[in-house]
Every structure is written in C-alpha cells, then in structure tokens.
Amino acid sequence: MPTDWIMGLIGGLLIGTGGAVFLLGNGRIMGASGLIGGLVDGTGRGNAGERIAFLAGTALLPLLLVLTLGPVDNHLTGNLVLLIAGGLLVGIGTRIANGCTSGHGVCGISRLSLRGIVATCFYILAGGLTITLFRHVLGVV
Amino acid sequence: MRNALAFLAGALFGGGLYLSGMTDTAKVQGWLDVFGDWDPTLAFVMGGAMIPMAIAWQVSARRAAPLAGGSFPVPPKAEVGRKLVIGSVLFGMGWGLVGLCPGPVIASLGYGDPGVWIFAAAMLVGMGAAPALSRRLDSAVPAE
C-alpha cells in the first residue's frame, strides 16, 4: 500500500535524523542493541546517563502518541514460547554480532561499513528463512 | 547538554519507528516473508533513514568534534568474522519469529501489550548471557 510506503519513508527520515543528532551532537552511533546491552553487561557504565536519556526518548514519544492518537495494533504474537525464544535470540545475537537493524543497518550501511553490510545480509537472510520455515512449512507463526 | 541531545535523538528514533510502522510486527514479518504477502515498507524505512545518516557521516568527517564534545567514532577495526555472522544469524532468527528488534521493542513498551514486556525481558536475559557466549566463540578452535 503506497500510503504505508510514504509513512515508512517519512518515519525513516525521522529515524535517520535521530541518528544524525546522536552522531553530530554526542559523537555516538545510534545502535539500539548496543545502547541497551551496554547497560545490561556494564560496559556502558561510563556513559549510562546518555544511554538512558536516549532510550527514555525512544519509549516516551510513542507512548505520548498512543495516548493522544489512540492505540496501535502491533500484531504481536501471544505465544509465550515464541516471545521468549525470540527475545533470547535477539538479545544474544545482537550482542555477539555487536549490532542490530539500527547500528549495523542504518548507521553501518550509510557509512559503507563492510561489517554493517554483511551483518544486514545475514540477519535478513536468517529472518526470511525463519519466517518461511515457521509460517509456510510448520504453520506456527 | 549530552543528555538533552540524547533524549532528542531517542525521541526522533521512537517517533520515526512509530510513524513508519516498524513497531507493527506484521509489517516486519511481511518484509521477511517473500513467499507470502510481501510488504516492502521496511525498505522505504531503511532507505529513508540512511539519507540523513549518510549526510551526517559526511558532515562528521569535516568537523573536528561533536557539538557536545568528545570525539567521533572511528571506523571499526574488527573485521568480518564468525561472531558477526553467527550473531547476525541468531538475531535474524528471533527477528523473523516474532517481528521485533531492539529499537521497536523499546518504542512499543508503552503500547500496553504485555507481550512486548515479556519479549523485552527475554532479550535482556539474552544480552546478559551474550558476553560469556562471545568469549567462547573467541576461544573456540577454528573449524579448518
């Protein structure tokens, strides 16, 4: 649906502007998994304040939008096993690879980082194979 | 100053994730599901996000330091290794199973869906376990 594509493009421009502010303002790469993971494993203790400030902004603006504009249907599965397995895989994988869709994808590819490009190819490929297997072969997603 | 800029950047990130539909797991799984009802929205989001970000990288190369002080990140010296590949494959599997990645998880914490919090809790546990697994991969003998 073209409306979704236009909203995607506008939202994407906002996401990239956030990354630009974080880079040019604070000298930091906007990688969600790194910002969160550094708080979990203690490697980000030295700059915990700006990590928390960033993540607070990430959580609060959508909350405000939901409160003013109404609820969003996120179509999230209610299957506990999938939620827990998915969360564990995302947590472990992004920290071993040192990046996710924002760090390796948006920030890495836009500076033509080979690591970012390779990581993005692999997580999209793995995601595509996983949904194909679980949706079309096993029929559970 | 640093915290205010970080909050602004985070708000732009969260607002962008909300507007773009990237907190909707159906749109993310729709992008990955090339054999189903394929949804190209994610490509527009990634493409849109890379425009300001690519400009920012160019600007940063011409500036001595960030506005709030400190220094710009140096290009990563770590090469393309098995940790990058194994980690990305594991991440992609979880992403495909549920349709959430770390940014949208944070952005949708306020949606009132307990599933988001369950996923987030499992993700934090995974992130806590990752350093030990990562060290194992470092010390493992190469297959060849």
Automatic annotation (TrEMBL), chain A:
GO CC terms: plasma membrane
Record key words, sorted: Cell inner membrane, Cell membrane, Membrane, Transmembrane, Transmembrane helix, Transport
Name of a matching Pfam family: Sulf_transp
Chief location category: membrane
InterPro entries: Sulf_transp_TsuA/YedE (IPR007272)
Subcellular location: Cell inner membrane
Membrane topology per record: Multi-pass membrane protein
Transmembrane spans: 6-25, 52-70, 76-97, 117-138
Protein family (similarity comment): Belongs to the TsuA/YedE (TC 9.B.102) family.
Name of the featured protein: Uncharacterized protein
Organism annotation: Roseivivax halotolerans
Origin organism lineage: Bacteria, Pseudomonadati, Pseudomonadota, Alphaproteobacteria, Rhodobacterales
Automatic annotation (TrEMBL), chain B:
Membrane-crossing residue ranges in chain numbering: 41-59, 84-109, 115-133
Keyword Transmembrane applies: yes
Matches recorded under Pfam families: DUF6691
Keyword Transmembrane: yes
Keyword terms of this UniProt record: Membrane, Transmembrane, Transmembrane helix
InterPro entries linked to this entry: DUF6691
Protein name per the record: Sulphur transport domain-containing protein
Protein source organism: Roseivivax halotolerans
